[in-house]
Please model this.
Amino acid sequence: MTDYATIVERLAPCGLDCFRCLYFGTGKTRAYAEGLRREMEGFEKVAPMLAQGPAPVMRDYDAFKAILDHLAEGNCIGCRDGAVCFESCIALTCCKEKGIDFCFQCAEFPCEKNRYPESLDRRWRAWGARMQEVGVERFYQESLSKPRYE
Amino acid sequence: MDYATILEHLAPCGIDCSRCVYFGKGEVKTYASGLLRVLADYEKVVPAHTKAIAPVLADYDRFKAILSHFAAGQCVGCRNGAPCFEFCAARTCFKEKGVDFCFQCEEFPCDKNHYPGSLDRRWREFGARMKEVGVEQFYQESLQRPRYE
Model:
């Protein structure tokens, strides 16, 4: 099982997994997207031909390439290294002030200070509750068998 | 790379099956499958990310359709019986002539193949270069260039 100190490097104070985020600079998403982009170099020249013949789906190749480029350029260093997802998120500075690693370790959790988008708000509450229940190590172990995005 | 191994990679026309996007054991399939795995269920947060982070993600559905298309590639390659085009004469002709590549035939470049424009151009260039520098050096050079050009 991954040890606590390593998990703290990977998870943001809110519980989000920076290491598995698609924008993480040394993450798998970027590595796969870069590899795919390298292999696909020049493919835009043959995509129109395929679109007219065996693979109509290729008519959207431009849109595919734009998102592939986007995913290949992720360079986030992670929340704890100073790259917070949202300007409005106060979890990192707040945890430092409180002398804790995660929101759930605070007596005020879940507080009203964060204004997360709906799906993140829901997950932030669920993660904190689960970390409180089974501990950070087990929570992290469980999370690895689930998709990063849900 | 030796001649016999190159034969496993290249079709008689000179196209590199092993680097094709549809090759079942190719890098494109490997990377596309990996991306699909790490992006599992990402569509649930796409609307929020499109709005807050990256408008380009509005086309995520179309991106995923093509990514899935690449991840499903299962071609076994021309020499294993999966030619690109039904109308390609090279797929059977080379056997009749007892050669490995079109350029090794005295009729090259013949009129039997009716390749789409860009493939016709490359077929002629591939053959001319193989004739000039040999199959091994041709293949080595090709690895320094994009598969699609």
